[in-house]
Amino acid sequence: MEPPGHPARCHDVSTTPPVLAAELAQAWADIQRHHPELPDLAAPESLIGESSSACGAELSFERLLHEAVHGIAASRGVRDTSRAGRYHNRRFLAIAEELGLDHPEEPHPSSGFSLVTLNPEAKRRYRPTIERLQRALKAHTAATTADTARSFRGPAARHGSSEAACA
Ligand SMILES: [Zn+2]
Known about the structure:
Elements (H helix, E strand, L loop, with lengths): L17 H17 L26 H16 L4 E2 L4 E2 L1 H10 L1 E2 L14 E2 L1 H6 L1 H24 L3 H6 L8
Helix pairs in contact: 1-2, 1-5, 2-3
Bound molecules: zinc ion.
């Protein structure tokens, strides 16, 4: 049963270690320390198991900082995307650069400056945060793939798929 306000996901909620959501909230708080205008992250667990979007496919600190760019843009009333939220425009890039993200390549034709990467200074600044989050993500991946990939639970379990059907 999903808690109210939590969108349905393909992933079984019971396999989501709460520790990862807590680590995401902690990493967000670390970003807020450097950028006090950044609003709170309302639902860190909503980033977990999210399918790929124009904002990127994989959950990482870089991705979290990308979300923080949107957070700061929202608090400043800046329209940082266009084309139904897909195209990350130059206003997005300007705030991303303030937060320590670079976009070394030409903008992507449909997602714009979405794929920003941590610059060396931000990597240094957030190193402990990045390492903690990486550990939590690894543990999370191990926990969510153990059922299907790592453990043999007998022929019955093996043939009966325990994977949720993604509608
Ligand atoms: Zn985005």
